[in-house]
Amino acid sequence: MEEEEKEVKFRIIGAEEKKEYNIPKEVVDQVRTLLNPYISEKYNVNEVLTEIIEKSETYYITKDYNAILTQYLKYIKEILGQYTDRLENVTMMIKIVRKSISTTTNRKIHSAAAAKIGQDMAKKIGINADLTAVMLKIHDNGHTPYGHDGEQWISDALQSMGLGYLWHNAEGTRRLLYRENFYEKVIEKIKEENPDIKPWHLEAIRKNLWVILDGVLTHNGEATGRIFKPVKKDEKEFQEELLRCYTEEGEDKKIMPATIEGCLLRISDIISYAGRDFVDGIREKIITEVDSEYISIFKDFGITSEELRTLIEIDSPNYEEIARRIEEAAKQDVIANSDKTKIEMSQEMAEKLYRLRQKNNRAIVSKVTRETERNIFPMAIKNIIKEGKKY
Q1: pTM (2 decimals)?
Q2: What does the pLDDT look like over 289-306, one tens digit per residue?
Q3: Which of 65, 262, 268, 292 counts the highest number of beta carbons within 10 A?
Q4: In this structure, is residue 2 part of a structural domain?
Q5: Is the same domain home to 210 and 111?
Q6: Is there a contact between 149 and 368 (Cβ–Cβ < 8 Å)?
Q7: Half-sphere exposure of 66 (CA within 13 A, CB side)
C-alpha cells in the first residue's frame, strides 16, 4: 500500500516571483476544519495558507480559544462593559426594602471584586487572567431583583403555570446571546478597529466567543464546589445546555464549564461574596452582635476575637479588612491546590466557607425577607404572568 502523502505542495501565484512551499497535510486539514462549511463557498484555502505563511499568524488554524481571543479581549470588554451598569441596582444578600448604605455590596461591586480575585489567582495558576476577569465581570448579568429569593419566586411561578424555569446564570447568557446580540457586536467592533482583518479570521473569533458565555452559564455560586475540571463540549452542546436550563429541573446546577477559566470563575464567585455578606450585615446593622458562632468561624480564617472586635468598632470601622482577610486566605488555598488542568479548593477551606455562608443565611436573609416578602412577592409575580398571557 502506498504511504499516505504527509505534505501538500502549495504554490502562491500572483507575486513577482513564484514561491512554492511544502505544507504538512495536518495544517491544511486544520484550516479546512476551522473554516468548514464556509471554505468551499466563501474562502479559498490557499489564500488562508498564504496569510499564515507570510505573516506567521498561526492563530488562524489553532483550536486554542486563548490564542484566538486574547488579543481582542479589549474589544470584548468594551462591549460587555455596557451591561455591567445595570448590576448597580441589583442587590446581593441585602435586599432593597429601604435605602441601603452606598458602600453596601451590590452585584456590580461584587462582580468587580470577584474579577480581581479571579484575575489574581489566574496569574499565579498560569491560566488566562484577562479572560477570567471578563467572565467574572459579567457573570451575574442575569440576576433578578431581591437576589436568589427573587429568582426562586419567579421560577416557582413559571413552573406552576407550566412555563419552565428561570435561573440567573441561564438568563444572563440568553440576554447577552439573543437580546444584546453579543457575538455580532463584538465582531462589528473588531472590524471597525481592524479594517484589514480577513473574513476567515473574524470567523475564527466568532466561533470561539461562546466560551465566554459558557462561563456565565455554568457558574453556580449557591453551591460550594471544591474541585472543578473543564469538560469537553462544543458550541452546539453549549446551546443545548442553555435550552435545558429553561426546560429541565436542576439542569442549571448540573452543567460544568468548558474552560479552566470558567472553572476558576465558580470558586472566585464564592470567595468574593462569603466575607462581604457578613460585612454588609454589620454595615447595615442587621447583624448587631458578633456571637460565639461567628467568633469561631472567623478564628478558623485566622482572625481573632480581639481583631474582629477592633475591626468592627463603631468609631473606626474597617469592614473591608474583614472581607480582604477571608478572601486572601481562600485565594492562597486555591492557588496552592490548583494547576492548568483543574481548579481545587482544600476540603478544610471549603468547609470554612460553607460554615460562614450558612451562618450569614441565618443571620441576614431571614431577618430581611422571609418573614414578610415571601407572602407578598410570589403571588404578585404569578398574577403579573397570568395577566401577560392574556395578550
Answers
A1: 0.78
A2: 888 999 999 999 998 888
A3: 268
A4: no
A5: yes
A6: no
A7: 13
